[in-house]
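S1.2 Input.
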Amino acid sequence: MKLKHLFTIACTILLFACTTQNPNQVTISGTVTNPIGESVIFSNQDTSYSTTANEDGTFSISFILDSATYLNFRHGVESTAMYVHPGDKIKLTIDTELFDETIKYEGSIKSSFLAKKYLITEENNFFGEVFYLSTTEKYSKVLEDFKTTVITEFCDISDSLFIKNEIAEIDKRIAYFIGRQEKLANYTKDVKTYMWEASKIGWDFNFYTALDSLNSTEFNELLDKYTEAFQSSLNNVTDVAFIVEEKAKIEKTTSSWLKRKIAIDNMPKVGEPALDFTYPDKDGNKFSLASFKGNLIYVDIWATWCGPCKAEIPSLQQLETDYHGKNITFLSVSVDENKDAWIKMIVEKEMGGVQLWADSRDLSDNYAIFSIPRFMLFDANGNVISTDAPKPSSENIRELLDINL
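S1.3 Output.
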């Protein structure tokens, strides 16, 4: 009887342990309308939590938090801020076609506040005409009105520390904006007018889209129009020293975009031999892309200071686990300038695969890498499958790997 009684108690304890939820567990569920891929990521500077949305855009994720923290919710190329407490149960809805204008939270009034603050900020162009052409007094009034509007959104929040921190952050931004505007006092009115016009001209030229959509001749013509637009406005400036300096900036900008275009056009295409590179691991042993010929090679270009890069690490590690024993090499190349920071992170996060440190710009130049993370895939013969492969958190990468294994 005693044994039976003890067995019953043990089962009860076990059942209680299995069904009792950690009070610090956060659960975020939601629906993404018009989803862009499957990846849903919640991250801060230290870590990230990711999941995959279903075909209908619904998702759910749970993780443990020891203390309240700001998180970035990211889906597709967009992201937005949240503030999450241990134990929170949050429902999130969003439409990617408008993103911040549509995001709504249930169970997180602070996240709702941050979403509203973002929209208020977006409505105020702090580097618009009032920044360039008004007095500091008038500009300060615009900023104080912005602060007052944001403060009115605290009505449902009782956390004094959160409010204090948010107001401190707003005051810091206001001081920064005013400091920037005060420096304009050193310029004449015609120079400040040019600066205002130049800021608008920049928005009229989408070079990122043009890199892929235009051929080299068309791209050069676009660069000429860009230069002409700035020169037309610059003709109204009388400060000779400023004109010389500004022309140098324009030439530097156009040269940089032209370099990008040439790099993209010269990049190896699908099916062509890869451009090799050789970099050391943390112990100084050198490996090249050709070192892994005979295997499918999935390359991750990243850095320790890159938030989106770090957000992909858990998914990359899971990918490595799921494809362990398969004919594939996972090759990560860091573009960190600080080698010690790179070594520290790969050791602390127990990052697998082959970890290399880029001690030259060969890789970035040959593959037109101007932003990270960037993922590439090469076949067993060393030919290009994709120089812009799906990221680890996307289900598309698994399809691409399976097809080529």
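S1.4 Remarks. Confidence is low (pLDDT under 50) at residues 9-18.
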